[in-house]
């Protein structure tokens, strides 16, 4: 009987701890995220959608910008999952590679700009908690994570672009 009671108490304890964590996020990070999202949306409105469109088409012409600056700006301004719509500035042959780069940047941007992908914040905060317990700065972690993320998205974008173009040629699709 005690085993069943202990199991039931442990089972509900998991949800009670989850509730405490949820309330912590609700009173801590959620207001920050809402404020950041509002500010980013206001900035896009101030700059103007036409200017944003012209910038995207110009940046899409260059490989290095297509797989570094564009995914970073897309994640920062449009956040996940809207960031993938930045692919509309690109010819069809580059869209798979852009998507690969953008989706690969969902996690690395979170440490510096949590509004970009709040769903990944839970993962990042778990890692950051371990870093803090070691007595290290999470600011340094966020910057390093961001820089490594840029390198990774560039590599992934270039590799995926080459694979896409090769597969298109093999299937006789006009490039």
UniProtKB/TrEMBL annotation:
<keyword id="KW-0812">Transmembrane</keyword>
<protein>
    <submittedName>
        <fullName>PTS sorbitol transporter subunit IIC</fullName>
    </submittedName>
</protein>
<feature type="transmembrane region" description="Helical">
    <location>
        <begin position="22"/>
        <end position="44"/>
    </location>
</feature>
<dbReference type="Pfam" id="PF03608">
    <property type="entry name" value="EII-GUT"/>
</dbReference>
<feature type="transmembrane region" description="Helical">
    <location>
        <begin position="64"/>
        <end position="84"/>
    </location>
</feature>
<dbReference type="GO" id="GO:0009401">
    <property type="term" value="P:phosphoenolpyruvate-dependent sugar phosphotransferase system"/>
</dbReference>
<keyword id="KW-0472">Membrane</keyword>
<dbReference type="GO" id="GO:0016020">
    <property type="term" value="C:membrane"/>
</dbReference>
<feature type="transmembrane region" description="Helical">
    <location>
        <begin position="142"/>
        <end position="159"/>
    </location>
</feature>
<keyword id="KW-1133">Transmembrane helix</keyword>
<dbReference type="InterPro" id="IPR004699">
    <property type="entry name" value="PTS_IID_sorb"/>
</dbReference>
């Amino acid at each position: 009987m005690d085993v069943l009671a202990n199991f039931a108490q442990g089972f509900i304890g998991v949800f009670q701890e989850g509730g405490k964590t949820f309330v912590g996020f609700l009173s801590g990070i959620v207001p920050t995220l809402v404020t950041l999202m509002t500010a980013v949306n206001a900035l896009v409105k101030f700059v103007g959608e036409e200017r944003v469109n012209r910038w995207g088409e110009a940046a899409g012409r260059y490989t290095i910008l297509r797989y570094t600056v564009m995914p970073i700006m897309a994640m920062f301004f449009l956040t996940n999952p809207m960031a993938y719509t930045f692919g509309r500035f690109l010819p069809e042959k580059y869209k798979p590679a852009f998507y690969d780069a953008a989706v690969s940047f969902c996690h690395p941007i979170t440490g510096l700009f949590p509004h970009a992908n709040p769903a990944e914040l839970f993962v990042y905060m778990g890692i950051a908690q371990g870093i803090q317990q070691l007595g290290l700065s999470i600011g340094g972690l966020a910057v390093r994570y961001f820089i490594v993320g840029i390198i990774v998205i560039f590599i992934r974008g270039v590799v995926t672009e080459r694979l896409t173009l090769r597969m298109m040629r093999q299937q006789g699709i006009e490039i």
